[in-house]
PLP-dependent aminotransferase family protein (Deinococcus lacus), 404 residues
Amino acid sequence: MSGDFLNLGLGYPAAPLLPRQQLAEAAQHRFSQDDLYFLQYGDELGDPELRRELAAFLTQQYGCPVPQEQLMISGGISQALELVCDTLAQPGDTILTEATTYFLAPPIFAARGLNLVPCPLEASGSEGGPELAALEALVQQYRPRFLYTIPAHHNPTGLSQSEERRRQIAQLAERYGFTILADEVYQLLHFGPQSAPPYSCWVPGGQVISLGTFSKILAPGLRVGWIHARPETLERLAANPTLLSGGGMNPLGAALVSSVLERGMASGLRDLRARLAEQAQALSSALHEFSQAGQPLEGTRWSEPEGGYFTWLHLPPNCLPPHWPLRPSKPASAFIPACAFRSLATRPTRRGFVLPFIRRQSCKRPCAAWQKRRGNCGQQAKARSGWAAPRSATSAQADNPAGY
């Protein structure tokens, strides 16, 4: 946020959530040591100390073994996706993605010549993920190289796959020979019920590559993440010419994270979850206020978050003007409509928005802007645009079973 402008278009931590003191102490700890190897190019697999500390941390947090030899340090999930696609796929290979997904992932795949095929989502409450029957049919039809999925506190829908759904998808991968690219960016950010075991627990089967990052649990500017895969897969990734030339990803940032883990990160992670829970509750309270009769968001439905960064809003019909800008006049907010998260440009919709848990203004500013621009959806919009009362959940889901 700068000046009067509140950017709700990206999921990044607000300034009070950034661990300034923790990172300053980590830097002092690292630079006080005699070994300055982290200022060199570094190993292709990444800082050995970080891989060791990370293995212990993930084993504790995930509840399943994560050996050091199965970890590679990345420059974050976007860089990891690029590396995996460049190394393990060929142009023309097919990648299945969730029909609604992180909006900047498909361009990474498309830039590498991959054929993108969307798989519909299904949901029951906060549990949901790829529709299993549709997924198997698509696998049989396209014989994909990868399935890209965000299994915990999905961006943007907030859904989390149950353990049984994850197990069945892992079994499909083993049966048909495709690889699951599990973007587990929010796996550790639960503040409701604990997330189901991560796909990391299925790495030994050979058909899973689990991706994680410190961008959401420490700071995005570190540009440090990890790839969890079988050692033979990591050997292929480490042979990428870019790594052979420049060394491992971000040795300095990796060294800082290593010190954070060495000094203890569990309590900071608990505090972060608690603060995100408070902010999610504040946003939910504001949504309840503004969705009452006569308010700007009358008739809106949304998902109550149990983790992650986002709330997904389902707006009633004709709630927005046809040319409503994504960045209204100041003071206002930038936000992203549902159509931006469609894996392919099919069945676009303007009836959904994604809001991160930044502060109560996350809801108040867009609502005020909507009301000023058009009047509230329940009154003036009804008169000017033939607005109809929102259909029931059952009726709305007839068009799209998951509502996404």
Notes: The chain has two domains: 6-12+269-399, 17-265.
